[in-house]
Amino acid sequence: MRSYSLIAPAKINLYLEILGDRTDGYHELVMVLQSIDLADQIDLHPLSTDKIRVRCTHPQVPQDKSNLAVRAAELMAAQFPDAFAQYGGIEITIHKRIPVAAGLAGGSTNAAAVLVGLNLLWDLGLTQSELQELGARLGSDVPFCVVGGTAIATGRGDQLSPLLSLDHLHVVLGKYQSLTVSTPWAYQTYRQQFGSTYIRKPQDLASRAASVHSGPMVKAIIHQNGVEIGQLLHNDLEKIVLPAYPQVLQLRETIHQSGVLGAMMSGSGPTVFALCESLNQAQQVKAAVRSALPDPDLELWLAKFSSTGIQVASSV
Ligand code: C5P
Are residues 160 and 226 in the same domain? Predict the structure, then answer.
């Protein structure tokens, strides 16, 4: 039976607005999501037993059922028991390059790769939207990670409207290796501090989401205007994470002052990204941030916007 290697890209948020509460305990969001070419590689090898195993040498990646990639394989096995019985177990090897618990959807994109890969390996013939529906059961960012590119996400973050692909921009990403932020903590703290301002009426939620669809950020993306996109970057979770993590605030300010189109924290952080119009500018920004903040705990990466989600790298 075949083995597959898949490329699983990270995402950044160009826009993240928290609108209100949902009855399922999550938040009603409106976001603009963007894939970048910083990616993990996921290898899927069939096993002769009925086990689902994960291998990863990164110390922060769990090797048990708490790993979202394992949960994705278990979901597929439960949904398609005949295929699981026919093809047997699976070994998932994660080559981790995306920082963990960083606001870059690293776990979600690994899960999306397992869904896409098992669809191929087990010859299931599922459509992209069927894979996205399964992905939504695993996490709010998984449906986006399946398809990638540039998209508006509403609802829990799982209702997607694709936008014109924006693949000419570059980013510098910065993250303190020892710093991780819990996404549930960030959202719960936001609710404690700003819950009284939440939009309550369903029609008001819908009209706020619609106004973002026709608003300045989407127009700037349609016009491929990097300068405006940089000025319009927005993330409500910065109000929680930046005061709690002064190092992240300092990193954001240092990056912002280094002549970039814009700088912001991605998702619930703590990764901060700088938007740059060229690779040359990104390289200069990376060097400037490194010399301003020589702390060896600070990791910096260069990446480019990408128009793709999960891709098959090879199959043997
Ligand atoms: O969906 P996911 O597992 O990625 O979400 C992680 C956590 O982030 C949730 O448990 C919840 O606390 C918070 N969250 C939220 N509203 C969303 C998405 C995530 O409150 N729309």
Answer: no
Instruction: Confirm whether 24 is a catalytic residue.
Output: no
Domain containing 300 equals 170-306
**Ligand 1 site, residue 31, Cβ cutoff 6 A:** no
Which of 71, 138, 140 best tests ligand 1's pocket when mutated (most atoms within 8 Å of CB)? 140
Is there a contact between 165 and 307 (Cβ–Cβ < 8 Å)?
yes
Tokens of 1: 């039976």
CA of 169 to the centre of ligand 1 (A): 28
The vertex-99 CA angle with 94 and 100, nearest 5°, equals 75
CA angle in degrees (0–180, nearest 5) for 62-7-267: 60
CATH number reported for the structural domain that contains residue 254 in this entry: 3.30.70.890
Q: How far apart are CA 58 and CA 44, in angstroms?
A: 17
Q: Which residue do the tokens 């998209």 mark? A: 151
| Tens digit of each residue's pLDDT (9 = 90 or more) over 32-73 | 999 999 999 999 999 989 999 999 999 999 999 999 999 999
3-state secondary structure of 101: coil
Domain count, the chain: 2
The tokens for 127 are: 């459509």
pTM: 0.96
Distance from residue 142's CA to the centre of ligand 1 (Å):
12
